[in-house]
């Protein structure tokens, strides 16, 4: 089973581990309510790893977007990505998200706090994402967010190429994969 950070929603269920294995070669991530990346398909790691998003331990999408200087280069539509990440933190309220919001209000500055203080607008559960991969170049991806609320709130983020060019680049990235699912 893929295991992530300590805590009640830092692991995935065995059946979800099997689902991730079967999703490969599609890039997919499982995040918990604070944005910790607790599991990924092999291609998900190959796609997002080189951007620096998976460098921290635990890897955290929220912190990456707002505090890593590589994030704006990785996401050409950074403002839109930042809006979605901040909104998701506000939707999954609990002690953990409140602590992360408090921490990031101090460390990430106005780009974060301004978004947290805005009126809440429900994020799209599916949309397009432009990702600037360090070796693959610009990819245009569609994504679906599937909520997994059986035990603890977790979200499966599934990415698919949105055009032929992105399909070819993703196939090249996938050709170097090792193993199916790792966390």
From TrEMBL:
InterPro entries: MLTR_LBD. Residues 12-172 form the MmyB-like transcription regulator ligand binding domain. PANTHER family: BLL4672 PROTEIN-RELATED. This is MmyB-like transcription regulator ligand binding domain-containing protein. It comes from Microlunatus parietis.
């Amino acid at each position: 089973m893929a295991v992530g950070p300590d805590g009640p929603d830092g692991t995935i269920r065995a059946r979800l581990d099997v689902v991730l294995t079967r999703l490969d070669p599609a890039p997919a991530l499982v995040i918990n309510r604070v944005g910790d990346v607790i599991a990924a398909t092999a291609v998900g790691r190959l796609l997002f790893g080189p951007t620096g998003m998976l460098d921290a331990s635990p890897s955290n999408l929220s912190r990456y977007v707002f505090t890593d200087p590589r994030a704006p280069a990785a996401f050409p539509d950074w403002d839109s990505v930042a809006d979605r990440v901040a909104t998701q933190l506000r939707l999954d309220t609990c002690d953990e998200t409140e602590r992360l919001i408090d921490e990031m209000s101090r460390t990430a500055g106005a780009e974060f706090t301004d978004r947290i203080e805005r009126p809440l607008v429900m994020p799209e559960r599916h949309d397009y994402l432009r990702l600037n991969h360090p070796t693959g170049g610009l990819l245009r991806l569609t994504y679906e967010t599937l909520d997994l609320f059986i035990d603890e709130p977790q979200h499966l983020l599934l990415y698919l190429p949105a055009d032929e060019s992105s399909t070819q680049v993703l196939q090249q990235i996938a050709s170097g994969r090792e193993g199916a699912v790792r966390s």
